[in-house]
Give the backbone structure.
Amino acid sequence: MRGGAAVSPRRPPVLVSAHRCGAGAAEALENTLTALSHAVDIGADFVEFDVQRCRDGALVVSHADWVESDGRRIPISDLTLAELTGHTAVVRYEQVLDALAGRARAHVDLKLTSPAAAYADPASTREVAATALAVDRLGAENVIVTTHHDRAVRALRDWSDAHDLGLLVGLSLGRSVVGLPWYQQLRVRLSELLPRLRYLESRANVVVANHALARAGVARFARRRGLPLLVWTVDTRSALRYWMRPGRAWLVTTNHPQTALELRDGRFAPRRDPGS
């Protein structure tokens, strides 16, 4: 405006992703359709869930990559869908996508990988096959895909570009280093605190960081590169107050989406938890 102070554009509100379908403290409801329905009802922008692959190629929603049987852990990847169903209740990936269609956006956290040779042809990877299902049902504009695996990110980005999808694909920083020798733990953490090379090579177009790493410098890295920042998993009220401030992040993943939404929107009316 002539003769007056410049008006700064208003920053958009931080979006909320309901972690593990928004089960919160109700662990039995993690990655279930019941939790998903509640997350959608309270207004979560995205619903986050973990995708595992069975031996026969079936895709299921589960954070753990194993089931327990007779005191031992059996990898889901070693079981067919029928065998897995014999050990635990199963929610199919396609069921979750259908439940989200037209209601909320999907935050698909891929916990599967492909044989090394497959990455030479992105379209042949398991990650692309899983993502294509979400894109077909929801539309690319309603999907974000995250993974800890650099080659998977590159395959997804190349596939997206080949089909002009504009898909958001994030390389997750903050993987567990439990059980690794100290020097490997150090190498992993340094690659996450200084992720420039990994992001250049993977072509990730979303920065995805554990909240501690985000505060330690990854948020600054995202701002410098002009990339949206997804912060996970933010659960305390004080941390949610910090990250829900406009401009701090693009998307926050939390086990308490209701609290995050209330802090963002100024709504503090009590609501029932999905497990109550």
Observations:
- The domain at 15-52+96-265 is CATH 3.20.20.190 (TIM Barrel).
